[in-house]
Write a structure and sequence with these properties.
single chain, mainly alpha, 9 helices, 0% strand
Amino acid sequence: MRLLQLHLRSRRVPLATATGTALIALAWALSLAYTDSPTINARTASLAIMLAAVAVGTTLTGADNSLDHTMAVNWPVRRAGHLLLAAAVIAALLSLSMITDTRYEPFALVLRNTAGLLGLTALGATLLGAALAWIAPLIWTLIAVLPMMGPSPDLRMQVAGWLIQPAGTTAATTCAAVLAVTGLLAYALRGCPVRPVSETAPDR
């Protein structure tokens, strides 16, 4: 238990959890205050999930990421577990809205977007590092929530705007699944890039 606490603290998990919870709650509160719909629309839900995923992105590496590549720890399993636990926490936070009059639903869409955006964040962390993992989910989400984007029979629009397509849209679900699996495997197997010693060494 002590090792788990140290691991979570070293990756700033408590702060990320608090941040993600606050952002999800803020989106819920704004929807409750300014709309009469019992369902939080897909655009607002996608933005809330994206911000929570970005918060998770900060936890995907520690202060010294060279330690994440040591052979003494089964890092692929630990990294995969870290990402899956983050997905479960975000889904659980979103599901709490089900007991209120304004809800994140349909829940299939919530799960799809959570999985896809976390996978995209993990893929960004693998390629660019945790500090820049926010770029891909932010850009794709901002594109998807543009006014001209919406439910469409066009396959390209369904992929580009997969975040706001109705639950059960095959292309959107496939896109989210590909992002989720690719991001999970890439992050679990490779982790974040090791920064040069010059970037991590203390100043003399």
